[in-house]
């Protein structure tokens, strides 16, 4: 089936067929009736192929049937790609553009997820992590890293103890029409044995604490409007400074009394006019097999960065810092995607159009992408 779903229209048409539509509705009704507390729905789908159309149609159906519930859509894309496959790249661009345009219209939030560097036609190198050795051409490696990030950034609305729901999170991030967000993560979060969280954050300095995972290029010099940040996997003992009484404090972070305060103050220092939500989770991310072996030998069994020689022990768990951000970099990313789409003579790709897409749909997608891009221009990080 995946081999046949090359175009957005093919995927969209599947959920227009009565037999598939009825099956989806029956399954949804069954689970909803059995659910004690329905926050909303998460949709994970490929963004670069025909499953983009399946996801787009599913968000539309969910919005119609369950108005008021949260709908968070994660659009997955492969890592690097080659210029030597022009038709595949054109289809990837078309499916991504149509998918983002349609999903953003019917979702509370849409987040592309990729280790690649670009959504457009110009290839960019994949992202790197200081303590990971991964092969960006292997879906198994890419999927593991993206799953780690996804498992972390969704913590706020998945914990019973958290007061945050899917709708609350979406409302914080999507104000003024900013329906698209970027994901980012530090895998693993760099902590040396004996170091405290304030020590580690001060050591980062003014550098961006995470690596972007939404194929939006280099985020340096861009503005963040709102962000939800999760740090997981640090022992409670290292959440705050353990300096002896009377010792001069290296930074204001060392004066905080809880780990939540440390993280919140760090975010406030880095971006003082940004609406931020900070969450700490004690549980680390488990990376025992079948998780692929991607880790630097300089990591301990629990993912701490060793100063001395390698321990030789297999890494079993890691601390992770993850974030969802509404960022001005999306103005450039979405604008570039729209420009790439506008330069295409879509009539040359008859098989894409034969799948049920018309020229008017292309113009509508261009307009939607342009409107989305404008939402991220200028403005302030805080709103009244």
- Rg result: 22 Å
Bulk shape: globular
Q: pLDDT below 50 for ≥5 consecutive residues: which ranges?
A: 380-384
> What is the percent of helical residues?
25-40%
Largest sheet: 5 strands, mixed
Mean pLDDT: 91
Cα end-to-end separation:
48 Å
What assembly state would you assign to the polypeptide chains in this entry? single chain
Let me know the number of strands.
Answer: 10
Order of helices and strands: HHEHEHEHHHEHEEHEEEEHHH
Number of helices: 12
User: Order of strands across the widest beta sheet?
Assistant: 5-4-10-6-7
Strand content: 5-15%
Structural class: alpha/beta
Subcellular location: Cytoplasm
Protein name: Protein misato homolog 1 isoform X5
GO biological process, one term: mitochondrion organization
Organism: Ursus maritimus (Polar bear)
Feature tags:
alpha/beta, three-stranded parallel β-sheet, globular, disordered C terminus
Summarize the structure.
The protein has 384 residues and is an alpha/beta fold. It has helices spanning 8-14, 18-34, 51-65, 86-106, 139-153, 155-158, 166-173, 197-204, 259-270, 329-342, 350-354, 359-375, and strands at 40-46, 70-76, 109-113, 182-186, 211-212, 224-232, 275-281, 285-286, 317-318, 320-327.
SSE layout and pairings?
Elements: H1 8-14, H2 18-34, E1 40-46, H3 51-65, E2 70-76, H4 86-106, E3 109-113, H5 139-153, H6 155-158, H7 166-173, E4 182-186, H8 197-204, E5 211-212, E6 224-232, H9 259-270, E7 275-281, E8 285-286, E9 317-318, E10 320-327, H10 329-342, H11 350-354, H12 359-375
Parallel strand pairs: 1-2, 2-3, 6-7
Antiparallel strand pairs: 4-5, 4-10, 6-10, 8-9
Helix pairs in contact: 1-3, 3-4, 4-12, 10-12
């Amino acid at each position: 089936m995946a081999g046949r779903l090359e175009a957005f229209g093919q995927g969209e048409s599947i959920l227009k067929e009565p037999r598939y539509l009825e099956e989806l509705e029956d399954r949804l009704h069954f689970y909803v009736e059995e659910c004690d507390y329905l926050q909303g729905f998460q949709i994970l789908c490929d963004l670069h192929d025909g499953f983009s159309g399946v996801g787009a149609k599913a968000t539309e159906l969910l919005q119609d049937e369950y108005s008021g519930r949260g709908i968070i859509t994660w659009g997955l894309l492969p890592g690097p790609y080659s210029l030597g496959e022009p038709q595949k790249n054109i289809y990837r661009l078309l499916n991504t553009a149509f998918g983002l345009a349609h999903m953003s219209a019917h979702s509370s939030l849409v987040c592309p997820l990729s280790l690649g560097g670009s959504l457009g036609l110009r290839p960019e190198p994949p992202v790197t992590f200081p303590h990971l050795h991964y092969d960006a051409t292997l879906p198994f490696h890419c999927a593991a890293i993206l799953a780690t990030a996804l498992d972390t950034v969704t913590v706020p609305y998945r914990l019973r103890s958290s007061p945050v729901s899917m709708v609350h999170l979406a409302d914080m991030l999507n104000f003024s029409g900013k329906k698209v967000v970027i994901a980012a993560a530090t895998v693993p979060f760099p902590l040396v044995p004996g170091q405290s969280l304030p020590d580690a954050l001060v050591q980062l300095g003014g550098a961006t604490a995470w690596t972007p995972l939404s194929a939006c290029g280099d985020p340096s010099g861009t503005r963040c409007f709102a962000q939800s940040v999760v740090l997981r996997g640090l022992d409670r003992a290292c959440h705050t400074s353990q300096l002896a009484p009377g010792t001069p404090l290296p930074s204001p972070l060392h004066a905080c009394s809880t780990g939540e305060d440390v993280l919140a103050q760090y975010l406030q220092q880095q971006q003082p006019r940004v609406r931020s939500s900070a969450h700490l989770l004690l549980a680390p991310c488990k990376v025992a097999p079948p998780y692929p072996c991607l880790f630097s030998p300089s990591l301990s069994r629990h993912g701490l960065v060793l100063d001395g020689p390698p321990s030789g022990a297999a890494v079993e768990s890691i601390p992770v810092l993850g974030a969802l951000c509404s960022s001005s970099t999306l103005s450039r990313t979405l604008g570039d995607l729209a420009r790439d789409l506008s330069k295409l003579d879509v009539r040359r790709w008859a098989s894409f159009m034969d799948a049920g897409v018309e020229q008017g749909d292309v113009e509508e997608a261009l307009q939607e992408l342009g409107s989305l891009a404008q939402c991220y221009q200028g403005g302030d990080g805080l709103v009244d």
